[in-house]
């Protein structure tokens, strides 16, 4: 009735794509597909090494004090509990939806919507503390748009080449500081008693987890890479281990360079890493570090946008929440319509928040919202993991139950101490994030069942609320065969059916309908 009275609303109406739209054709041929290097630096860009070393370490040092290196080391080891979920899911479910697909696979597609808020807010958490921040914001978004509209391969080529220099720079600076610190080098930097008390040390270790947030950004590129079930888990592991190791080394160098007994002033310094670089190295390295902080900030925005766009695309093509036209691809096979929508929404949120709260408070507010939303997405994925692996009858208690439960405990404590001690700004962040989560959940909940079934079918998952047939309950057709790592082969194995068990469905090759017709012939 509403659409009849206001036909223009059809422009915003979600509806499934009539064709089997996928991102696998975005690069024209298999030679143009993304490589392992691209996946690694998509995740590293999501971590933002120079930005995290400049900012996040100071937040952890506020609590851990002179025990910062030990807190960073413990969080690095414990963080593999978070990587565990991404590792196991990405070996089985590979889709542009990323964590959207992970949640749908285990606990159903109704939980898919809330995951979008996290990636949107991770991009909008970038306002800039200057008197001309609006102009800087506009310029920054124009640069992001130019990079992303130039194509994902070019974006990740630049991210990889500059990211390699960034990692080398951080390592060199840490080594130089430690080498020139001389007698200041001491194992006392790994003594938890340097913190005010053990609870503060634990909080510092939890906050150290933020340095590697974003490591899973590669999972949303599953439809644009060959053999994603093999390459994505490896890329995530490489990115996490590389950055985590560098952060431990950097935390040690900063602590002994500053003085482990004087870390109160370190925590309150604006960019202590640059101060230490000037003191122990030279101004050239300090200026280079300063430049790469901006480079790192820029590419975390690019990585966040690439993730957001692919989630919008994955939902829109099956008629979930987003307008039908955001699932359309450009002539080069890129999701430019979803990119445009994501950029506009993110820019409006950044601008309005900055105008209402000011650039400083606006940045802090959206940064907290980003943390809460991304952690919420990981909590949903961790919750989904045991349900998924019980369905495919590959459940392992340690990896699929104990590890995700412990990971959720860490995340919940991390969320709590992100907002503690409380003030109006930090209290507003969970309220705003909660509104996002509830709104997107409700929009997903009212999505027609046939649209949700279509999304599950794309993953080769049986209707989320239908009954299994007798043959399905016996698990006769899992569709999983050794060496099968592409959608067309999976469809042939499954005889084009959506089966009771979840099948490792990697990506469609743009010929899904044609293949189904061929295999249905007697």
Automatic annotation (TrEMBL):
The keyword Iron does not apply. Its main location: membrane. GO terms for molecular function: transmembrane transporter activity. Keywords: Cell membrane, Membrane, Transmembrane, Transmembrane helix. Residues 468-498 are annotated as: Disordered. It is a multi-pass membrane protein. Residues 479-488 have a biased composition (Acidic residues). The keyword Membrane applies. InterPro entries: AA/rel_permease1, APC_superfamily. It is found in: Cell membrane. The chain crosses the membrane at residues 39-64, 70-89, 96-112, 132-152, 159-181, 201-222, 234-254, 286-316, 337-357, 363-385, 397-417, 429-448. GO terms for cellular component: plasma membrane. This is Amino acid permease, APC family. It comes from Galdieria sulphuraria.
